[in-house]
Design brief:
It is built from eight helices and 14 strands. By secondary structure, the protein is of the alpha+beta class. The protein has a single domain, classed as B-lactam Antibiotic, Isopenicillin N Synthase, Chain (Jelly Rolls, Sandwich). Pfam families: 2OG-FeII_Oxy.
């Protein structure tokens, strides 16, 4: 049973590395995920100044370069209660540039997500994958295991993040050279990706400790004389093949630039890759409700009641969210049987459990049902989300031993890639 409160019991300070994992922090984190569905984490790598700059630059990227919003429409960044620097001349991206930047899969590039409120309320998204010379090498082992030929899978997984489109964007005023903001924004996103990858592994170490996972003996059972296996989850995530997404929710009533919908429209769940063998696991339907209640589509004329992102669970192991001071995130409360607004902390990252963690723990840690409502006065909203994903060829099996819960024997293990959408 999950109960959500706006209390500081959801704030946990964790250390860096396995040597700094404590039982106190681990138990607090686990309890927050079980009771509240989320947890705020403070970590040595997380600094308020970094999060503020991340939100300011992401707003500028979407409002000025992608959407070309006039000053009267664009919302000043609320970070720290400060107004942004005076507007300078910026050359918006051309339709041709946006087309080159667009990803057909929602991974590594720009796309527009059409959710609860239709085309006129589409969410602007920019996805960043791990920066490696050959992205295909991150997922190739899974496709080989699944019986795919290289000619079949390579085009699906070889796409890099199209940075060249941003780095070649010209500066305004007809001057020579490229817009320096784009290079700076790229460096910030890549640095933040690495930061989140490190933080997510530390979160998983604390979860492993909180669950009481111990190293296995040669016979396959747990060694009762050993310490906790802090790094149980880390080998399944050692490629850091994750997804960092900057998301921008335009002000309500704002029509998309040029009246066109660029990118992909995701309406009712994502397409999954079918392995050449056992049937793939189905992706969760984003239209499913909790307890049969239809609480996610209360889109009436009151902008304060409009759902901007439907009820869903994250296809991740854990998700790290940095939302701006306007908030808007809601999580499901089992006892109240309704959605509860999540408070905003500007010096911590919000952590929620994803579907893979639910599968690994046999449902002990449930993936958190959540949604996004419009913020006060229908203002814009900016968030940056890091989806910590396991390696595609990671075998996901319930942690609990057979003698502890025989019912788990019926749960078949699967490769993480069986749940992944095409090209993600």
């Amino acid at each position: 049973m999950r109960r959500t409160f706006c209390r500081f019991s959801t704030l946990v300070k964790i250390g860096r590395g396995a040597e700094n994992v404590t039982e106190t922090a681990s138990n607090a984190l686990l309890e927050a995920l079980q009771v509240h569905g989320y947890c705020y984490v403070q970590h040595p790598f997380i600094q308020k100044e970094i999060l503020d700059q991340l939100h300011r630059d992401s707003r500028q990227f979407f409002e000025r370069y992608i959407l070309d919003l006039p000053p009267a429409v664009a919302t000043p960044s609320p970070a720290g209660g400060k107004r942004p620097a005076p507007r300078t001349d910026i050359l918006p991206m051309t339709p041709h540039e946006l087309e080159k930047l667009t990803t057909p899969s929602g991974f590594r590039g720009y796309y527009r997500y059409v959710g609860a409120s239709g085309v006129d309320d589409a969410i602007e998204c920019f996805s960043v994958g791990r920066e490696v010379p050959n992205p295909a090498e991150l997922r190739e082992p899974y496709y080989r295991l699944s019986g795919w030929a290289p000619a079949e899978y390579t085009p699906l997984i070889a796409r890099p993040t199209p940075w060249e489109v941003l780095l070649e964007h010209p500066c305004a005023g007809g001057g020579r050279g490229s817009d320096t903001f784009m290079a700076d924004y790229r460096e910030m996103l890549l640095a933040y990706y690495d930061l989140c990858a490190a933080v997510s592994l530390d979160v998983l170490r604390h979860i492993s400790c909180g669950l009481g996972v111990r190293p296995t003996t040669p016979q396959g059972g747990a060694d009762p004389n050993s310490d906790y296996d802090m790094d149980f989850f880390t080998p399944f995530h050692d490629r850091c093949d994750c997804d960092l997404q900057a998301k921008y929710y335009p002000p309500l009533g704002h029509v998309v630039r040029g009246g066109r919908t660029q990118g992909v429209e995701v309406r009712a769940g994502a397409k999954v890759i079918r392995r050449k063998g056992p049937l793939a696991q189905p992706h969760i339907n984003s239209n499913n409700n909790n307890n049969g209640n239809n609480n996610n589509n209360t889109n009436n004329n009151n902008s304060d009641e409009m759902v901007r992102l439907d009820t869903h669970k994250d296809l991740s192991t854990v998700t790290l969210l940095a939302q701006d001071a306007l908030g808007g995130l809601e999580v499901w409360d089992d006892e109240e049987e309704k959605y509860i607004t999540v408070p905003v902390l500007n010096d911590a990252l919000l952590v929620n459990a994803g579907i893979f963690l639910e599968k690994w723990t046999g449902g002990l840690l449930e993936a958190t049902p959540h949604r996004v409502r419009s913020v006060k006065d229908g203002s814009s909203r900016c968030s940056v989300v890091f989806f910590c994903l396991p390696n595609h060829d990671a075998k996901v099996e319930p942690l609990l031993q057979q003698d502890e819960n025989p019912a788990l024997d019926a749960q078949e293990g699967f490769y993480a890639g069986d749940l992944m959408p095409t090209a993600q």
